[in-house]
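Appendix C: a fully annotated inverse folding record. The material below is reproduced so that readers can follow the format used throughout the book. The structure is listed first as tokens, followed by the designed sequence.
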């Protein structure tokens, strides 16, 4: 009779998230104001008097690559409303709210240990918003379940 006692250890990979594409609301004229929404799939829509224009930039959802342990489930935390704004550096700003992602609240890494995460949001444009180039940042947090 042969008996064996072995010990083995498994180590979970650290989970990382890397931005691969920025969120862009495209070019527009504020007019009487309204909103511009960019969906996680990249589609763009507007409300109110905002006029979307083709020149000067296109809209795009933000893209991130989440990496870690193969087939691991993880949760996605997006920014809360009223915490993100775009600024032109001259005391003019616009709020960004309604963040949404694909996958939604949770994701599952592939057998290769990665998954593409797309994020969209809604920009609130003020009546006669000052023209200019507006920038900002936001955080996306991912955690293993």
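Designed amino acids, in order:
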């Amino acid at each position: 009779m042969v008996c064996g006692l072995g010990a083995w250890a498994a180590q979970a990979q650290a989970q990382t998230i890397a931005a691969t594409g920025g969120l862009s609301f495209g070019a527009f004229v504020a007019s009487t104001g309204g909103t511009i929404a960019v969906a996680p799939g990249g589609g763009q829509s507007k409300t109110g008097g905002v006029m979307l224009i083709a020149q000067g930039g296109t809209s795009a959802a933000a893209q991130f690559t989440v990496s870690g342990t193969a087939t691991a489930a993880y949760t996605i935390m997006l920014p809360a409303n009223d915490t993100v704004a775009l600024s032109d550096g001259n005391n003019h700003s616009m709020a960004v709210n309604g963040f949404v992602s694909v996958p939604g609240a949770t994701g599952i890494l592939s057998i290769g240990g990665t998954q593409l995460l797309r994020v969209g949001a809604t920009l609130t444009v003020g009546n006669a918003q000052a023209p200019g180039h507006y920038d900002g940042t936001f955080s996306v947090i991912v955690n293993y379940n």
